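Quick entry, no commentary yet.
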Amino acid sequence: MKRIITTLLFTMFILANTHSQQNERCEVMFETNYGNIIFQLYNETPLHRDNFIKLVDSHYYDKMLFHRVIKDFMIQCGDPNSKNAQPGEQLGEKDCGYTIKPEFRIPLLFHKRGALAAAREPDYANPGRESSGSHFYVVWGRVFDDAQLRKMQARLDTIYGDTVKITPVMSDTYKTIGGTPHLDGGYTVFGEVKEGLDVIDKIQSADTDKNDRPLSDVIIIKAYITKDTRPKRKPDNRN
């Protein structure tokens, strides 16, 4: 009997430990001239998670600018041309040259304040709503009341039919924390700010020109992985 109980306890420990590991998230640090930001990447969006880690690991975002900033909406990055941009130069057209299939996870993952999401080309040029390989944005948004959320739901119904619904959990978040509900269902959310939301606030409040580029450059000094919780691949020993 003792052996059975010991075996059961050991099995339960292994299962609990495995579940905990599955729930752990990869984390990435962005050091900027406005302060540091730590992003957590969602396991529910593995294509976007792994791509973001690949780009960070290759130093793709080092010295890049947040080239598009709209107060009470979001901040955007991802144009490699921004690394050597002249003051006032219009940015945003260049990317890494590929797209990623969408990974919409409504209602689990949505555009709350601090959400990390993939930018993309508009529907008329991109009917599959595939994400840009390198352009991402961080949500700031605003706080909504019930009447405003009903209008947002009507807007979503017009675009997506009956497929994207603002749930009670989402509604409570938009009414307390804030966000951009009109983007739900059309853009992949693949992470969130773990630390540094105050830095996002400072960036989204920056003065900008007519093209939404900050008048004073917002620079990613360097980006790097601080935690990689993805399952380790077994080495290929085939000759």
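second:
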Amino acid sequence: MQRRAHEAVLDAMQRRLNPKLDAMTLRRRTIEHVFGKLKHWMGSNHFLTRRLENVGTEMSRMVLAYNLKRAT
């Protein structure tokens, strides 16, 4: 009996992460910082559109504005 449909994949990922206990902490420090800045600078706390294609477009615009703001 399995707990999840993809339990083997999750177990394999956990085995890879166990030697590097701080890998997720490092990832959060480097990646989540950018999204936090986007939310703070752009004043957005949720996406205004629905469906993956539209949300992707909205995210691309926010990232473009973020990059332009940093370039100036």
